[in-house]
Design goal:
Shape: globular
CATH superfamily: Aldolase class I
Radius of gyration: 16 Å
Distance between the termini: 10 Å
CATH architecture: Alpha-Beta Barrel
Strand content: 15-25%
Number of domains: 1
Number of strands: 8
Largest sheet: 8 strands, parallel
Order of helices and strands: EHEHEHEHEEHEHEHH
Structural class: alpha/beta
CATH topology: TIM Barrel
Strand order of the largest sheet: 1-8-7-6-5-4-3-2
Helix content: 25-40%
């Protein structure tokens, strides 16, 4: 089943609560990009802001950590049960320990790979981690062009572990969402295609129909 998560980094940051209220009836959850200005050259939400957004919605929260210290963030965050927490394979040498921290908090552990990382790198961890986030742009900035090679990674991961849940983040729009869904990606973080539209509600409805 395809799930759509508006990525709030592209919303009007002065009116995030209004964006949540507007889109909540039409989406499956909300995606938050946490950047630390070290792992990626940008700085976004801190823990307090993540907690405030979590309180503002009843939908699933999907927090994507683009940080050097995912373990520290796992320990500091307080999210509702069932939230997703994605962390980058490239950001830690303790993949299993970070995943264990996440699952102990009753969240969904999700391992993320950047465009330069092959799908095969994460195969050893898929016996215990059942959610993968495939980046279809370079992490760190919204509004980039979709990288088609990401579809090959989705296929490879799906062939290796058919029951794994695969997410995708970056450059998803009306032109490519059908091929992304056909490749086997299920959880889709969508930014500009929703928030740069004159009518975000109509945009998410059309994206769902295309998917």
């Amino acid at each position: 089943m395809i799930k759509l998560f508006p990525s709030l980094i592209s919303s009007n940051l002065l009116c995030i609560e209004k964006s949540i209220t507007l889109l909540e009836p039409y989406c499956d959850g909300f995606h938050l990009d946490v950047m630390d200005n070290h792992f990626v050259p940008n700085l976004t939400f801190g823990a307090d802001m993540v907690h405030a957004i979590a309180r503002a919605t009843q939908k699933q929260l999907w927090v994507h950590l683009m940080v050097d210290n995912p373990m520290q963030w796992c320990q500091d965050l307080q999210l509702p049960e069932g939230s997703m927490l994605s962390f980058h394979f490239e950001s830690t040498d303790e993949v299993e320990k970070v995943a264990e921290c996440i699952t102990e908090k009753k969240w969904i552990a999700s391992i993320t790979i950047s465009p330069k990382t092959s799908a095969e790198k994460i195969f050893p961890f898929l016996d215990t981690i059942n959610h993968v986030l495939v980046m279809s742009v370079e992490p760190g900035f919204s509004g980039q062009r979709f990288l088609p090679d990401a579809l090959e990674k989705v296929t490879a991961i799906r062939e290796y572990k058919p029951d794994v849940i695969i997410g995708m983040d970056g450059g998803i729009n009306l032109e490519n969402i059908a091929s992304i869904a056909a490749a086997g990606a299920q959880d889709l973080a969508i930014a500009s295609a929703i928030f740069e539209s004159d009518d975000p509600v109509a945009a998410i409805k059309e994206l769902r129909n295309k998917a």
